[in-house]
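2024-03-11 09:14:02 DEBUG pipeline.ingest accepted 1 chain
2024-03-11 09:14:02 DEBUG pipeline.ingest length=86
2024-03-11 09:14:03 DEBUG pipeline.predict start
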Amino acid sequence: MLEQVEKVIAAIRPAIQADEGDIELVGVDEPTGVVTVELKGACVTCPASTQTLKAGIERIMKDRVEGVTEVVEINALGMSESPVQL
């Protein structure tokens, strides 16, 4: 499943980059079918990014990769890969 998800990300990345954004695969939970991604660049502040994620990326992912149940964005989960500096 991971390889298929990576191929789909590679296929949709140019469209996202055309709008000054980017997408990075964070992980795939195969038992639940949840794909976690991180949206970057213009996607971070874009008010339509949730719509892009659910109606675009998630729909394409479900159509092309058997077993995918949901695509979630890491920042929407309150997670961050950036270290906190005080």
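2024-03-11 09:14:41 DEBUG pipeline.report DSSP finds two helices and three strands in the chain.
2024-03-11 09:14:41 DEBUG pipeline.predict end
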